[in-house]
Model the fold of this input.
Amino acid sequence: MNLIIVSGPPSSGKTSIILKAIKAFKNQGRSVGVVKFDCLYTDDDKLYEQSGVPVKKGLSGALCPDHFFASNIEDVVKWGEKNNLDLLITESAGLCNRCSPYLADVKGICVIDNLSGINTPKKIGPMLKSADIVVITKGDIVSQAEREVFSARVSAVNPKAMVLHVNGLSGQGAYELSQLLYDENQNITSVQGMKLRFPMPSAMCSYCLGETRIGESYQLGNTKKMDWGD
Amino acid sequence: MLELSIKELVKKYPFVIEFFEQNRLDIKGFEEKSFEEFLSCLDEDELEDKAIDIRGLKNELLSYIEQMKEFLGISDGQVNSLTILSGKYKDGKAEPFEKLEIRKSEIISIVGPTGSGKSRLLADIEWAAQGDTPTGRTILINNKPADPKWRYSPNNKLVAQLSQNMNFVMDVSAGEFIKLHAQSRMISDPEKISQEILQAANKLAGESFSSDTPITGLSGGQSRALMIADTAILSASPIVLIDEIENAGIDRKKALKLLVSKDKIVLMATHDPLLALMADKRIVIKNGGIHKIITTTKEEKELCIKLEKVDSVMQRARQSLRMGNALNDEVFFE
Done:
């Protein structure tokens, strides 16, 4: 089975471009399934169901969504194997822009959109920087110049990635993306022992444990103070 | 290359500043050191804090330099012709033409109802299809199979797009906006090119604007004018695809002339007879395929002049309304 990890800021168009790419990919006669990760709510699973794509969703709820991803990915792969998928895609939103769910030996795709502003490539860190393929969306509604500035900045942050422009509405570019998904030589049956490309932030403070009161005396563990320059 | 000090590196490749900037690497105070020495001086906690992984950075810097060198080495007008070799309709039947060659400075219009396959044609060109897309078409650049760089490299895209739905989203003035674009293309004199673009845009727009005007505050016509002038003069892409240009507030004929004068190949999806007939040829799309290629005839060109007259009546009526005048027959149909 092939595994692909798709990540990107909320509302950047991940689901739309995956759906469009799957539609083109299915013509190759291979089976695809999706596992959608989110935090509090998603009904994107219905969109996948409507397209006849086997889907599971995982809501992290009270936990950090990327940590939740890391603790569940092994079971996700088992589910894919059980369903005899040729290609399994996981989709998750990078919520704090600090984490990235990519694994070292698994293809990682970052989806970002032109509307998010030209400083976004600088802001989102490892999720963009360590991706193999960067998909830029919503190019149909911003000017050519903004598109060019945006992709120039993407390439400064991640010069090794393949950069594709895909339109989640018209599907322009989705066929091309679908051609990059499957690799004959990859066969993943388990991700046990694989490594994250980038460590997640280390945090363990009183607020992680449910503290709600504000004040120095309630702050325990790994806390950090702003630099006020005095 | 990496044994150079950062100062020497910046002198040789000024664009590496952008790499440091976008990767949030503060090189201040390390100018005399090499990039590797700089990396080894960084504090581990700080790296973790900023989510920076230094292991890959050395190779990334090298890739970036290579990529930019290649990008900057592309001289304008290197794409002299674009050729479409026929493929098939949605139902698998072969398209009824052999090949269509489009040379630079040519204008081709594309007609056909929504969903007929215009987007697919554009995608074939953008992706430089080699018989490997659903239409089976092949795209040749300068009569040769296209270089793979057109597919994967972020800075070398074959097609620039202009459409009715596009807006400016950046919060900057027109002058700053052009300068940002110029910087991303490593233009040596952003000030000069900024002047040139503003002048060109003001020639296209009905109402003029200055370099201090915020781009989000431009009128529809002014925005369109700035987008077209900027794409003509500053975009790296040799092919421009236009998805309808609205009539109001912009001189469309001048806009097309400007694009063509900058050696662009212009493809224009439109159902406006004025625009369609300005083109040298038009492609008719049907059922996902190129159904016909019509060369604009002499009669059509003559008709186009008549249509322009009708159009100018509407323009004058609009202008008169804007000025607060009462409208009457004689003014427009004398």
User: Anything to note?
Assistant: Chain B touches chain A through 54 residues (CB under 8 Å). Chain B has a mean pLDDT of 88. Strands of chain B lie at 81-85, 99-103, 107-111, 138-141, 144-145, 159-163, 239-243, 265-269, 281-286, 289-295. The two ends of chain B are 72 Å apart (CA to CA).
